[in-house]
Amino acid sequence: MISTTELVRELIYQIRLGEDSAYEFKAITVQGSRVTKPHSDGIADELAAFANASGGILVLGVNDKTREVEGITHVDLDTVEQWLTNLASQLIDPPLPIETRLVEIPDQQGEAKPVVWVRVNKSLFVHRSPAGYVHRVGSSKRAMSPDLLARLFQQRSMARLIRFDEQWVPGASRDAIDPELKARFLRGNLPEALQLKKLYLLREDENQQPGLTVTGVLLLTRRPAEFLSSAYVQCVAYSGTERNADYQLDAQDCDGPVDEQIQQAFSFVKRNMRTEAVKRPGRIDIPQYDLGAVYEAVVNAVAHRDYAMHGARIRLHLFADRLEISTPGGLPNSLTVDSMDANSISRNETLVNLLSRYYPADPSTRRQNMIERRGEGVPTIIGASERLSLRRPRYEQTDNTELKLTIYAASRESNGLLAHFVEDEDRTDD
Questions:
Q1: Which among 28, 72, 288, 424 would be 20 to 30 A from 302, CA to CA?
Q2: Is the dihedral of CA 334, 338, 344, 348 positive or negative?
Q3: Of 185, 208, 226, which residue is a domain's last?
Q4: What's the CA gap between 332 and 388, in Å, rounded?
């Protein structure tokens, strides 16, 4: 648990910045033994919104408009804590567990004022509050659309039972299996169905008949999108820096089993990216992108996307100055954009496991397996790309529904290989 000193330091910093997707501030008024402001329903909505998204912190005793620390009198702290406990259990369905701490932070005059710090974790359930089903988007709460709500119920119910990628896909019977695609998984004389079940490629459906799981559809069928809407990669290359159909150079929908999608998307980038040549006096090839980083980025997008999101495809867009890969689904579990290069969490654990065991990488990447499973994917993307273009790639998350990676192109003007060569040349001259 974070120490009180660290917590106070964090709160002072966050209050200065204001509210965001993870922090909500509220001033509070207590009259007698009753909290009169804010309304209980509103706070229940805020707590449920955090739980239905990625979790967050509510701080009572800080004005959200002025960012001033107004505090709560010591005699009212127990009243406020009891009020919070009651509304979390009585106004939210299912009841929401919360963690509270009492801390003192300085106001603008430097006087220590008590506040109530409330942490809400991302829940395994979908919670209903007085406003209905709401979730946190940026610094505010919003009602969830029917489609988003249905998907969230599915995701969280499966998280409590089985992994989503091991779930049976309606309509995907054994007849959809391609004989060539299943061959790599079969060993010895064990029955085929038993082997595929052990790998979670098959699961019994509601009629106790073996049907394909999500992973089975993605690896064993020629057209996964027939069963999982938009399970493909859309690739588009533009001559300029904006999305404009008049300047479209190339386009391809990469479908087929996911290993082929990865190879097709990777080949699309290789085919459309530029390689310049500089003579100093020998020839130096300057590629726009590090191919190892591009391959890792494409593999990550296909392996870790949210396949429960219907109608949402992976979008790989190549511009004159950058490569953008937009992946359906927010970051899994407690992973954040800031922690991606230090932590590794798989959304589709079964799919990732099989891609790492049974599928070789593209020979040009100088790696053995399609997924290495060393937790070095994001650091590789960032490090290799930054060394080449001298610009750090950027990850952005949109409303917990999409993750976008931008890799900046190298050029004559900004190129790590050329800069390194020039430094060596200068040292030689000296």
A1: 288
A2: positive
A3: 226
A4: 29
**94-124 pLDDT, tens per residue?**
999 888 899 999 998 999 999 999 989 888 7
Q: What is the rounded CA–CA span in Å between residue 261 and residue 253?
A: 9
d(CA 281, CA 286): 15
Cβ neighbors of 397 (< 8 A, separation 6 or more) are: 330, 331, 337, 403, 404
The string of DSSP codes covering 311-340 is T--EEEEE-SSEEEEEEES---TT--TTTT
Domain membership flag for residue 430: no
**14 plus 58 within the same structural domain:** yes
- Least confident range from 136-140, 179-183, 320-324: namely 136-140
How many structural domains comprise the chain? 3
**Residue 154 domain flag:** no
CB atoms within 10 A of CB 320: 16
Q: Say whether both 178 and 130 belong to one domain.
A: no
> Do both 244 and 219 map to the same domain?
no
Residue 124 lies in a domain: yes
| Least confident among 247-261, 267-281, 308-322, 375-389 | 267-281
Whether residue 270 sits in one domain with residue 369: yes
pLDDT-derived band at 205, boundaries 50, 70, 90 = low
Pair 70, 202 in one domain: no
pLDDT computed for residue 192 by the predictor: 93
Which tens digit of pLDDT belongs to each residue from 22-63? 999 999 999 988 999 999 999 999 999 999 998 899 999 999
- Say which DSSP state 62 is in: B
- Starting at the edge strand found earlier in the chain, the sheet holding 23-26 runs 23-26, 56-60, 112-120, 99-106
| Nearest-angstrom CA–CA distance, 269 and 318 | 7
Query: In whole angstroms, what is the distance from residue 150 CA to residue 353 CA?
Result: 28
Q: Strand 168-173 relative to strand 314-318: parallel, antiparallel, unpaired?
A: unpaired
- Which residues does 366 contact at the CB level (< 8 Å), separation at least 6? 292
Instruction: Report the CATH number at residue 101.
Output: 3.30.950.30
Model pLDDT for residues 352-381, shown as the tens digit of each residue: 999 999 999 998 888 889 998 777 889 999
Range of the domain at 391: 233-421
For residue 156, being part of any structural domain is answered with no
pTM: 0.62
3-state SS of 187-233 is CCCCCHHHHHHHCCCEEECCCCCEEEEHHHHHHHCCCHHHCCCCCCE
Does residue 293 sit in the same domain as residue 416?
yes
CATH of residue 365: 3.30.565.60
